[in-house]
Write a structure and sequence with these properties.
alpha/beta; 31% helix; single chain; 7-stranded mixed sheet; globular
Amino acid sequence: MNTSGLQPLTFAVPTYGSDNLLKRNFLASPCFSGDNRHQFLIQRDYNSASRAYNDAIDAASNDLVVFVHQDMIFPANWLADLDLALKYMDSLDPDWGVLGCFGVTAAGVGQGYIYSPGRGIFGAPVPHPVKVQTLDEIVLIIRKSSGLRFDPDLPHFHLYGADICLRAAQKGMSSYVIPAFCIHNANQYCVLPQEYYECYRYIQQAWRDALPVQTTCLEVTKSNMGVYKRRLREAYVQIRRKGFIAPRADDISKLLADALSHASI
């Protein structure tokens, strides 16, 4: 699809260790075939996503900055989908804060349309950008000129999507899920890592006056009841040895074909 009208983008991708996963997934995305206008910032071996992404904002040569996981795959029409969404936002909310591919409303309703091995299609197509409270970290898009930055003290690699959306809201800017189908080629687990709960506690304290806050994994509240219930369920699935759902796909061509054959796009 023609994306000649789309301004150049900066893509920021955190990695750790080998670049094999990055090269076989995100950098192999069909949407980049023959399009070399964009800047790719590979943020290697950072101890937190927030610090990696803040450094990427400083280094970005373009106003539009896309923060993305290295195991994401963008189909051929993803850049065109983004272009259409940006044009829609020019009329809907030209002062938007953060865009993404999956998120959740303040009422706890998930929005977005993605595919993952083992889970298959997740969510449903959205006809136009939809306002949400927070966005999943798989894809986050901001404008450098907005002045938005991630909390440098938020540890690890979880819940920084919620944090940046809350920071946008604090500045009077809204967050939206856009119609841009994509594939998350991740190992699928039922059990959240310990680092997630450390990030949960950080968000719980940092945004105490904004609670409750919906996220794509768990609602952050002043009470820890939701955490206790989640960890009990996790203990149960670990006892039954069912905490692992499906591995990351090795055959990227087949994964892409499977995803597109199941998607309503």
